[in-house]
Amino acid sequence: MKIIVCLKQVPETNNVKIDPVTHNLQRNGISGVINSFDVNAIEAALELKDRYGAEVVALTMGPPDYEKTLRLAMAMGANEGVLLSSRGFAGADTLATATVLAAAVNKIGGADLILFGRQAVDADTGQVGPLVAEKLDLPQYTYVSKLNLSSDGQIDAVRMLDGGTVRVNGDLPAVATVRSELNEPRYATPRNIKLSFKKDIVVYDEKDLDLDDSEIGQAGSPTIVTKVYTPTATPKVTETLEGSAKEAAQNLLTKLSEKSIL
Amino acid sequence: MSEIWIYVENHFNRVDPSSLQLITKAKEIANGRQVTAVILEDHDQDFENTVKQYGPNQILLVKNDNLKNASDETITNVLVDLAQEQKPDTILFGATVTGRSLAPRIQGRLKTGLTADCLDLRFDDDLLVATKPSYGDNIMCEITCPKNKPQMATVRPNTFEAVVDGSSEPKINEVEVTVDVDPRVTVSDEQGSVSNTRSIGTAKRIIALGRGAQSESIIKKANELAGKIGAIVAVSRPLTDLPEFSHEQQIGQSGNTVAPDLIINLGISGAVQYVVGIQNAKTVVSVNTDPKAPIFDVSQYKYVGDAEAFLDGLIENV
Ligand SMILES: Cc1cc2nc3c(=O)[nH]c(=O)nc-3n(C[C@H](O)[C@H](O)[C@H](O)COP(=O)(O)OP(=O)(O)OC[C@H]3O[C@@H](n4cnc5c(N)ncnc54)[C@H](O)[C@@H]3O)c2cc1C
Ligand SMILES: Cc1cc2nc3c(=O)[nH]c(=O)nc-3n(C[C@H](O)[C@H](O)[C@H](O)COP(=O)(O)OP(=O)(O)OC[C@H]3O[C@@H](n4cnc5c(N)ncnc54)[C@H](O)[C@@H]3O)c2cc1C
């Protein structure tokens, strides 16, 4: 059994500012960390490694410092790390990102299961998993809170909906995107951390993946960000409820009923 | 004529409110474009009866028993065939779990752009300009898709209000299509959660509990007050670890967006990930022992003090 886990590195904080002159996001100086949901994806893969001896490959597209995220995955127990890095990949929207990831999955020789986090916490689209599934013509199991694979090539999952759940099952190979409810990720062990630094990371660019310049990066991206701004929150006027808890509660009820809110 | 399509999502034999909200919004920005609600259902279902009350110009209806419990793959097959034949200018989905799963799959097959989880939509001439939040709603961006068609977006539920509009009878265009069922996937019946989150998303009154209000007696009292005023009890993320609550009641970035007329926050600090979930609430009341709690910055009424004592005061006097 072979599992590929796709990982994104995101800014450590969502408290990013806009450069008042260039109107670009100021991301310099903010260090990168692994997208939190992707840690659940790694854990899901490692549970399959524990159970079936699955081989786990961590895959990421990004600048060279994304190596850090691959090392973390290997320190948790992934067998291998593959970095997709090239200037040509920069500025990719979700479609162009998925094109590169799908090509890399093929280059690695495919897998029984390709795992994703439910969404990246920065750009927050959740689109890359379903897009890769579509590009590889694989079934998708998105937003899963339960996931079981059997040795005879079946997948059985529970997808968490907004107001319920639904069981989905079928044949492998498949793509799954995981929710944090799926599992409690393990910590890296000192032994694995040490081992992870002995492993080589394979790096591919567009030539290795046999991709045309028009399919990748900005050129391969149909969407364009035309404006970036900080939302101006309309400041709410806050009224303090004075007195004892009882008085304050009474006071609130009066005000709410005056305004026909209650 | 150029068309805006809205994919009509359904769960538990009901049209998802996000689809109806999108119909109202699409009509508001249509400026001469035709608003088409696209319904895929089996022969026992009649979602068109609900949808037509909201006044789309047209309903594109596919009735086929293979659409019962259809997988994302099967729905994609049908929608892509329809879109390739009829060439809508724009396709919109609710940014629900279902919408966020289907839309990118369709985007991939149509090789076009998709903007996620939008908070606003408008047309600048022919271009759909979608406003998308990112970095936990700290940054907004406007995104367009100038070269590819259709233009696609998913839109955050409960951002717009659905308004009934009986001014004209929509044309119902029922089409026969072959439904290519993907044989690789089996979808079972949906199971509702004990307390339907839909009711959190659409609740008019919410009592929200955080880490400063998580004792058993507070939870009991909050439920009592909720019963009295017709509210629903919701929680911040840490409380989803308690046996009484689950993700279904969680408000926030990784939970649910709510838009009640009234929300009372008890013992919630007001982390950005929580606050983004309540920004569409009309009246916000917060109780916290910490006078500097950030939740007060987004509240109309604040009380600095103990949550349980305040709750007692409310129950006694309501
Ligand atoms: C402010 C902002 C807004 C944006 N809005 C949009 C938009 O609306 N539409 C659009 O098409 N693009 C958008 N983009 C571009 C988008 O962020 C990139 O395409 C990004 O590479 C992937 O999208 P995501 O971050 O939303 O990931 P998601 O789709 O949310 O990620 C889901 C999962 O996919 C995997 N994954 C994601 N990226 C990688 C990667 N580089 N390597 C390996 N695995 C990965 C991870 O498992 C992750 O958990 C936006 C970018 C910015 C900066
Ligand atoms: C990627 C990501 C996604 C997240 N998504 C979400 C999300 O969707 N929803 C969410 O809620 N959080 C989310 N979080 C977590 C979030 O950052 C906060 O940790 C969380 O909201 C804090 O919950 P809280 O306000 O209940 O607890 P705390 O921050 O611990 O606040 C408790 C408050 O109670 C007050 N208090 C204590 N005792 C009393 C008393 N007796 N009476 C009154 N007040 C009292 C304290 O002063 C304090 O302000 C997310 C975090 C990350 C990193």
From TrEMBL, chain A:
Molecular functions (GO terms): electron transfer activity
Pfam families: ETF (PF01012)
Domain Electron transfer flavoprotein alpha/beta-subunit N-terminal residues, every copy: 22-213
Superkingdom per UniProt: Bacteria
Name of this chain's protein: Electron transfer flavoprotein small subunit
Upper taxonomic lineage: Bacteria, Bacillati, Bacillota, Bacilli, Lactobacillales
